[in-house]
Amino acid sequence: MTAAATALATSLPQEEAGLEPARATRDSRPLRLITCGSVDDGKSTLIGRLLWDTKAVKEDQRATLERDSSGRQNDLGLPDFALLLDGLQAEREQGITIDVAYRYFSTDRRAFIVADTPGHEQYTRNMATGASTADLAVLLVDARAGILEQTRRHATIATLMGIRQFVLAVNKIDLTGYDRARFEVIAHEFREFALTLGVRQITAIPVSALKGENVVHDGRAAMTWYEGPTLVEALERATTRSAQAVGFRLPVQRVSRPGESFRGYQGTVAGGAVKPGDSVVVLPSGMEANVSKIVTFDLVRNAAVAGDAVTLVLDRQVDVARGDMIVAIDSQPMTGRAFEAQLVALLPDGIEPGKRYWLKSGPRRQRVVVEPVSQLDLSTSAWHPAERLAMNAVGKVRLVFDEQAIFDGYEQNRMTGAFILIDPDTNDTVAGGMVTGRRAEIGGIRKDDERVVLSLPADLADRLMASEIFASRRHDADVRRTDAARIARLLAALD
């Protein structure tokens, strides 16, 4: 791709660059974003400038910032914007970011939650934490240094965490004399690398975080050659991840039984929507029921959507406990005892193969053995076989459970596809990860430990369970109901 072609791609209309047109009205959903990149590329300064120019810094904060910046003002006489983010004493002493700092700001069109993540390799785990909930990544690059190994590392981790929208902020462009050719070379190099990650939604912007050019206010006075959006305009047009991509999901937090006449199942809707009369199934038991009523603390509702905290009342008595999941009967998550996942090791001891950890996903906690499969070489984006995962390592693993587990793929639903691993000896969180798939066969009969597992159409499963032949072996098998439509879809996928 030539520099001219790159320039053309940069100046395409926003719809063709993967961004929605600016909304005329305010978007009620805040956009969650992270800033990432190599150390000293200007992440904290950029966010500080965003907060300053969007008037998100209160008067008392301004006074404190000006006081703390004494002797650290830049050539423009402005305070040290990085101090708005670097709150730890060690961060201020060393001039680096160590922990993840979250800040809030808004424009007339949208509200934002931004996470400033550290650039040092030793704090990669903190960057992964910030990326796990983000809709978009602002990846900073020093215009003088270009794309570095840590730039690639952060882009790779952000992609593994499900981020598919990137803003490439080529910072400190003023220190190159606003060199257009330099900007285009960096933008082209990153686009080529991003293609290997499967990322195509990239908006490249030349910025000077220190001077505020192309951050909130445009920098056309200094960069007449750039015709794209400012950083804030790009953020206003970005999309948020939707939890409606899957069917209804309600991880049960608590069973409410204030009296004999009421039994409700409380939790926060983690995906989809539900209304009275909808058919649901309780997992892992497989019991089916219909929704009778949806209750909140002050009223009875006619529907609930992702993010709503509700109490669900069913039309019949079923056995439901904390950690179970109530889901749409026609759109169910994966169940099984073995899953494929990717994770980031968070502690110095890393992940010990064969050790039994606690896995926590929502309110559900289960025993699991982790089997490392491969580790990502973040400098080359290649996966290599691995028997153990050290701290900060990104790895592919097999999760083997003692009992039935319930997950959606992380790409489909972050809430029901993410997990943390807890060391049972110390109660420390040793890893965070996401489920990518199930290792069990689809349908048919298979042997799992010493039990037979049958996945059959619902009518056939009921006939089998009622037979005298099956009665004597009932405790040696797990029967999972499905429907003919699901079987047809699975068979079509195999063809």
Write the layout of secondary structure elements.
Blueprint (H helix, E strand, L loop, with lengths): L2 H8 L20 E7 L5 H11 L5 H10 L20 H6 L6 E6 L4 E6 L7 H8 L4 E7 L6 H12 L4 E7 L8 H17 L4 E6 L24 H7 L11 E3 L2 E6 L2 E7 L4 E2 L4 E5 L3 E9 L4 E2 L2 E2 L3 E6 L10 E4 L5 E12 L10 E6 L2 E14 L4 E4 L8 E14 L6 H4 E5 L6 E10 L5 E5 L2 E7 H9 L1 H4 L5 E6 L1 H11 L1
Parallel strand pairs: 1-3, 1-4, 4-5, 5-6, 25-26
Antiparallel strand pairs: 2-3, 7-16, 8-9, 9-15, 10-14, 11-12, 11-16, 12-13, 12-15, 17-21, 17-23, 18-19, 18-22, 19-20, 19-21, 22-23, 24-25
- Report the total helices: 12
CATH superfamily of the largest domain: P-loop containing nucleotide triphosphate hydrolases
Q: Count of DSSP E strands?
A: 26
> What's the architecture of the largest domain, going by CATH?
3-Layer(aba) Sandwich
Q: What is the strand content? A: 25-35%
Structural class: alpha+beta
Poorly predicted runs are: 1-24, 86-99, 440-451
Globally, the shape reads: globular
